[in-house]
Specification:
Blueprint: E1 2-4, E2 13-19, E3 22-31, E4 36-43, E5 46-53, E6 74-77, E7 96-99
Antiparallel strand pairs: 1-7, 2-3, 3-4, 4-5, 6-7
């Protein structure tokens, strides 16, 4: 599985990423007081989401049914299944933002 690597030492920062031939801008933030991360999402200069919290096992932007958003599901997940939370200690160490491809076998 492919994943989006978050460079924690750069936070807050922005980067462009191509997902299924569409370019999106992600902006990553960290809430030090409560130990969680959020993402802002833009496409073609338009802000689509501000402050989407990274929640372990929950698909990002899942509650939005809008064709401007990435079509590929993005899920914070630990393939070893030893972690169950997204925080400073786990993100980009064991928990990554996986791109869930639709052509994989589903159980």
């Amino acid at each position: 599985m492919d994943y989006i690597d978050i460079e924690k030492n750069l936070i807050p920062y922005r980067f462009d990423i191509s997902l299924e031939e569409e370019v999106f801008t992600f902006e990553v933030h960290y809430n030090e007081q409560f130990d969680f991360f959020t993402l802002n999402l833009e496409k073609d200069g338009e802000v689509l989401v501000n402050g989407e919290k990274l929640v372990y096992g929950s698909t990002l932007f899942y509650d939005v049914m809008d064709n401007r958003f990435p079509r590929v599901p993005i899920v914070p997940y630990d393939q070893s299944e030893t972690e169950s939370i997204v925080n400073w200690r786990t993100l980009s160490e064991s928990v990554f933002l996986y791109l869930i491809e639709g052509d994989e076998d589903e159980e």
